[in-house]
Protein backbone atom coordinates (compact mmCIF):
# COMPACT_ATOMS: atom_id res chain seq x y z
CA UNK A 1 0.00 0.00 0.00
CA UNK A 2 1.24 3.47 -0.79
CA UNK A 3 0.51 6.54 1.28
CA UNK A 4 1.93 9.93 0.37
CA UNK A 5 1.39 12.67 2.93
CA UNK A 6 1.95 16.20 1.66
CA UNK A 7 0.96 17.45 5.10
CA UNK A 8 3.72 15.60 6.98
CA UNK A 9 5.98 15.02 3.98
CA UNK A 10 6.34 11.26 4.15
CA UNK A 11 5.96 8.26 1.83
CA UNK A 12 4.98 4.83 3.13
CA UNK A 13 5.86 1.75 1.06
CA UNK A 14 3.95 -1.36 2.10
CA UNK A 15 5.36 -4.89 2.07
CA UNK A 16 3.49 -8.08 2.94
CA UNK A 17 2.80 -9.80 6.28
CA UNK A 18 4.25 -7.02 8.42
CA UNK A 19 1.00 -5.50 9.79
CA UNK A 20 1.14 -3.10 6.86
CA UNK A 21 -2.65 -2.88 6.61
CA UNK A 22 -2.87 -1.87 10.28
CA UNK A 23 -0.25 0.81 9.70
CA UNK A 24 -1.91 2.19 6.58
CA UNK A 25 -5.26 2.38 8.37
CA UNK A 26 -3.62 4.35 11.17
CA UNK A 27 -1.80 6.64 8.71
CA UNK A 28 -5.00 7.37 6.80
CA UNK A 29 -6.43 8.94 9.94
CA UNK A 30 -3.75 11.67 9.96
CA UNK A 31 -3.76 12.30 6.22
CA UNK A 32 -5.17 15.48 4.74
CA UNK A 33 -7.86 15.50 2.02
CA UNK A 34 -5.22 16.14 -0.65
CA UNK A 35 -2.92 13.28 0.42
CA UNK A 36 -2.65 10.00 -1.48
CA UNK A 37 -4.14 6.94 0.23
CA UNK A 38 -4.19 3.95 -2.08
CA UNK A 39 -6.88 1.28 -1.61
CA UNK A 40 -6.17 -1.57 0.77
CA UNK A 41 -7.47 -4.09 -1.74
CA UNK A 42 -8.61 -4.17 -5.35
CA UNK A 43 -11.87 -5.78 -4.22
CA UNK A 44 -14.97 -3.60 -4.44
CA UNK A 45 -15.98 -4.33 -0.85
CA UNK A 46 -13.71 -3.90 2.16
CA UNK A 47 -12.83 -6.97 4.19
CA UNK A 48 -13.67 -7.45 7.83
CA UNK A 49 -11.76 -5.00 10.01
CA UNK A 50 -11.07 -2.57 7.15
CA UNK A 51 -14.22 -0.47 7.47
CA UNK A 52 -13.66 3.25 7.92
CA UNK A 53 -10.61 3.44 5.67
CA UNK A 54 -11.03 6.16 3.06
CA UNK A 55 -8.91 5.69 -0.08
CA UNK A 56 -8.39 8.91 -2.00
CA UNK A 57 -6.41 10.62 -4.75
CA UNK A 58 -5.13 7.29 -6.05
CA UNK A 59 -6.74 7.29 -9.48
CA UNK A 60 -5.32 8.71 -12.66
CA UNK A 61 -3.56 7.81 -15.87
CA UNK A 62 0.18 7.22 -15.94
CA UNK A 63 2.89 6.25 -18.41
CA UNK A 64 3.28 2.44 -18.24
CA UNK A 65 6.68 0.94 -17.41
CA UNK A 66 7.15 -0.64 -20.84
CA UNK A 67 6.92 2.84 -22.38
CA UNK A 68 8.84 4.91 -19.83
CA UNK A 69 11.60 2.31 -19.47
CA UNK A 70 11.90 2.65 -15.70
CA UNK A 71 10.57 0.39 -12.96
CA UNK A 72 10.65 -3.18 -11.68
CA UNK A 73 8.45 -6.25 -12.04
CA UNK A 74 7.22 -5.52 -15.56
CA UNK A 75 3.97 -7.31 -16.34
CA UNK A 76 2.46 -5.83 -19.47
CA UNK A 77 -1.05 -7.24 -18.95
CA UNK A 78 -1.21 -6.10 -15.32
CA UNK A 79 0.20 -2.71 -16.27
CA UNK A 80 -2.41 -2.20 -18.97
CA UNK A 81 -5.22 -3.22 -16.61
CA UNK A 82 -4.04 -0.66 -14.06
CA UNK A 83 -3.75 1.98 -16.77
CA UNK A 84 -7.25 1.55 -18.22
CA UNK A 85 -8.76 1.28 -14.73
CA UNK A 86 -6.83 4.42 -13.72
CA UNK A 87 -5.04 2.67 -10.86
CA UNK A 88 -2.22 5.15 -10.51
CA UNK A 89 -1.44 4.11 -6.95
CA UNK A 90 -2.28 0.70 -5.50
CA UNK A 91 -1.59 -1.52 -2.51
CA UNK A 92 1.90 -2.96 -3.02
CA UNK A 93 4.17 -0.77 -5.15
CA UNK A 94 7.86 -0.74 -5.88
CA UNK A 95 9.92 2.21 -4.69
CA UNK A 96 11.04 2.82 -8.28
CA UNK A 97 7.42 3.22 -9.41
CA UNK A 98 6.50 5.58 -6.60
CA UNK A 99 9.62 7.66 -7.22
CA UNK A 100 8.72 8.00 -10.87
CA UNK A 101 5.11 9.01 -10.11
CA UNK A 102 5.88 11.62 -7.44
CA UNK A 103 9.02 12.96 -9.11
CA UNK A 104 12.59 13.13 -7.87
CA UNK A 105 12.09 16.40 -5.99
CA UNK A 106 9.41 15.00 -3.67
CA UNK A 107 11.06 11.59 -3.46
CA UNK A 108 14.40 13.03 -2.39
CA UNK A 109 12.95 15.48 0.13
CA UNK A 110 10.19 13.38 1.77
CA UNK A 111 10.76 10.92 4.61
CA UNK A 112 10.37 7.39 3.25
CA UNK A 113 9.71 4.33 5.39
CA UNK A 114 8.53 0.74 5.30
CA UNK A 115 8.34 -2.29 7.64
CA UNK A 116 10.32 -5.52 7.73
CA UNK A 117 10.04 -8.74 9.72
CA UNK A 118 12.05 -11.82 10.62
CA UNK A 119 11.72 -13.89 7.40
CA UNK A 120 11.07 -17.22 9.14
CA UNK A 121 8.24 -15.62 11.12
CA UNK A 122 6.99 -13.77 8.05
CA UNK A 123 6.61 -16.96 6.04
CA UNK A 124 4.63 -18.61 8.86
CA UNK A 125 2.35 -15.58 8.99
CA UNK A 126 1.83 -15.85 5.23
CA UNK A 127 1.03 -19.55 5.65
CA UNK A 128 -1.73 -18.95 8.19
CA UNK A 129 -3.20 -16.16 6.07
CA UNK A 130 -3.39 -18.56 3.12
CA UNK A 131 -5.01 -21.26 5.29
CA UNK A 132 -8.00 -19.10 6.23
CA UNK A 133 -9.97 -20.83 3.47
CA UNK A 134 -10.69 -24.52 4.21
CA UNK A 135 -10.00 -25.59 0.63
CA UNK A 136 -6.44 -24.28 0.90
CA UNK A 137 -5.47 -26.08 4.08
CA UNK A 138 -2.36 -28.25 3.71
CA UNK A 139 0.66 -28.98 5.96
CA UNK A 140 3.23 -26.19 6.27
CA UNK A 141 6.15 -28.02 4.64
CA UNK A 142 4.01 -29.09 1.70
CA UNK A 143 2.88 -25.48 1.29
CA UNK A 144 6.51 -24.36 1.12
CA UNK A 145 7.56 -27.20 -1.21
CA UNK A 146 4.76 -26.28 -3.62
CA UNK A 147 5.98 -22.68 -3.68
CA UNK A 148 2.68 -21.23 -2.49
CA UNK A 149 4.41 -18.70 -0.24
CA UNK A 150 5.30 -15.10 -0.94
CA UNK A 151 8.88 -14.57 -1.97
CA UNK A 152 11.26 -11.86 -0.78
CA UNK A 153 10.05 -8.28 -1.19
CA UNK A 154 13.45 -6.71 -0.68
CA UNK A 155 13.12 -5.14 -4.13
CA UNK A 156 10.03 -3.23 -3.02
CA UNK A 157 12.06 -0.82 -0.91
CA UNK A 158 15.35 -0.88 -2.76
CA UNK A 159 16.47 0.83 -5.94
CA UNK A 160 19.31 -0.72 -7.93
CA UNK A 161 19.93 -3.09 -5.04
CA UNK A 162 20.31 -0.34 -2.43
CA UNK A 163 17.82 0.38 0.36
CA UNK A 164 16.02 3.60 -0.57
CA UNK A 165 14.15 4.12 2.70
CA UNK A 166 15.07 6.64 5.40
CA UNK A 167 13.81 4.30 8.09
CA UNK A 168 12.64 0.69 8.28
CA UNK A 169 10.34 -0.18 11.17
CA UNK A 170 11.04 -3.57 12.69
CA UNK A 171 7.85 -5.58 13.09
CA UNK A 172 9.30 -7.04 16.27
CA UNK A 173 8.79 -3.69 18.02
CA UNK A 174 6.19 -2.18 15.72
CA UNK A 175 4.14 -0.14 18.22
CA UNK A 176 7.06 1.70 19.82
CA UNK A 177 8.81 2.27 16.48
CA UNK A 178 5.64 3.58 14.86
CA UNK A 179 4.83 5.94 17.73
CA UNK A 180 8.34 7.37 17.80
CA UNK A 181 8.39 7.84 14.03
CA UNK A 182 5.06 9.67 14.03
CA UNK A 183 6.22 11.98 16.80
CA UNK A 184 9.40 12.74 14.85
CA UNK A 185 7.27 13.66 11.85
CA UNK A 186 5.32 16.16 13.93
CA UNK A 187 2.13 14.17 14.47
CA UNK A 188 0.69 15.46 17.75
CA UNK A 189 -2.01 12.82 18.23
CA UNK A 190 -0.55 9.47 17.17
CA UNK A 191 -3.35 7.08 16.15
CA UNK A 192 -3.55 3.61 17.65
CA UNK A 193 -2.68 0.67 15.44
CA UNK A 194 -5.72 -1.52 14.74
CA UNK A 195 -5.46 -5.30 14.46
CA UNK A 196 -6.36 -5.64 10.80
CA UNK A 197 -6.31 -9.05 9.13
CA UNK A 198 -5.45 -10.75 12.40
CA UNK A 199 -6.81 -13.77 14.27
CA UNK A 200 -5.88 -16.43 11.72
CA UNK A 201 -2.73 -17.62 13.45
CA UNK A 202 -2.80 -19.50 16.72
CA UNK A 203 -0.87 -17.79 19.50
CA UNK A 204 0.91 -21.07 20.18
CA UNK A 205 2.09 -21.33 16.55
CA UNK A 206 5.59 -19.91 16.84
CA UNK A 207 7.70 -19.99 13.72
CA UNK A 208 10.20 -22.28 15.43
CA UNK A 209 7.47 -24.84 16.09
CA UNK A 210 6.45 -25.04 12.41
CA UNK A 211 9.70 -24.91 10.51
CA UNK A 212 11.47 -28.08 9.48
CA UNK A 213 15.12 -28.30 8.36
CA UNK A 214 13.88 -28.08 4.76
CA UNK A 215 11.67 -24.99 5.22
CA UNK A 216 14.27 -23.28 7.38
CA UNK A 217 16.85 -23.64 4.61
CA UNK A 218 14.43 -22.53 1.89
CA UNK A 219 13.66 -19.31 3.77
CA UNK A 220 17.36 -18.71 4.37
CA UNK A 221 17.99 -18.97 0.63
CA UNK A 222 15.03 -16.87 -0.49
CA UNK A 223 15.50 -14.09 2.06
CA UNK A 224 19.31 -14.00 2.01
CA UNK A 225 19.39 -10.24 1.37
CA UNK A 226 17.11 -9.39 4.30
CA UNK A 227 18.99 -11.74 6.60
CA UNK A 228 22.30 -10.18 5.62
CA UNK A 229 21.11 -6.56 5.78
CA UNK A 230 19.13 -6.75 9.04
CA UNK A 231 21.11 -9.48 10.75
CA UNK A 232 18.12 -11.75 11.26
CA UNK A 233 18.70 -15.22 12.69
CA UNK A 234 16.44 -18.21 13.18
CA UNK A 235 17.13 -18.34 16.94
Counting DSSP H or I runs of 4 or more residues, the number of helices is 11
Pattern of helices and strands: EEHEHHHHEHHEEEHHHH
Distance separating the two termini: 30 Å
Low-confidence stretches: none
Task: Record the strand order, biggest sheet.
Answer: 3-1-2-4-7
Tell me the Rg in angstroms. 18 Å
Average pLDDT reading: 91
- Tally of extended strands? 7
Helix content: 25-40%
Q: Kindly name the structural category.
A: alpha/beta
- Portion of residues in beta strands equals 5-15%
Gross geometry: globular
The biggest sheet, with number of strands, parallel, antiparallel or mixed sense and barrel status, is: 5 strands, mixed
Outline the structure in words.
By secondary structure, the chain is an alpha/beta fold. The protein is 37% helix and 10% strand. The chain is built from 11 helices and 7 strands. The protein has helices at residues 20-28, 65-68, 76-84, 95-102, 104-109, 119-130, 140-145, 174-184, 207-210, 213-222, 224-230, and strands at residues 2-5, 10-13, 36-37, 111-116, 158-159, 162-163, 167-170. The strands form 2 sheets. It has a 5-stranded mixed sheet with strand order 3-1-2-4-7. Strand 1 and strand 2 form a beta hairpin. The radius of gyration is 18 Å and the shape is globular. The two termini are 30 Å apart. The relative contact order is 0.17.
Question: Topology of this structure?
Answer:
Blueprint: E1 2-5, E2 10-13, H1 20-28, E3 36-37, H2 65-68, H3 76-84, H4 95-102, H5 104-109, E4 111-116, H6 119-130, H7 140-145, E5 158-159, E6 162-163, E7 167-170, H8 174-184, H9 207-210, H10 213-222, H11 224-230
